[in-house]
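Thread amino acids onto this structure.
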């Protein structure tokens, strides 16, 4: 889960967004584009990730599975970028001959 999702501000934005999105369902999932039905488990998803310059207010419905998968992918990419095991070292860049 990214930092901003853990902040109280996002919780209130997401709660309001749910209220706005619910009457519009079924609507296309922001992740996969298939319809999200009110009877399905769904989350408020970002149309464009904040880390890529998206806005907190640019949201739409997302299947829960799609949203968790997208967040997981991004979280993993961030975590891996911090982990030196996933970063090239000087040794990797130096030809070994
Ligand atoms: Zn989806």
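Threaded sequence (97 positions):
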């Amino acid at each position: 889960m990214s930092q901003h999702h853990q902040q109280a501000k996002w919780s209130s934005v997401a709660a309001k967004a749910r209220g706005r999105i619910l009457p519009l369902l079924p609507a296309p999932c922001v992740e996969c584009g298939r319809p999200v039905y009110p009877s399905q488990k769904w989350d408020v998803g970002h149309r464009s990730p904040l880390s890529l310059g998206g806005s907190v207010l640019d949201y739409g419905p997302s299947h829960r599975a799609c949203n968790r998968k997208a967040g997981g992918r991004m979280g993993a990419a961030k975590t891996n970028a911090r982990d030196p095991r996933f970063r090239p070292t000087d040794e990797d860049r130096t030809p070994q001959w």
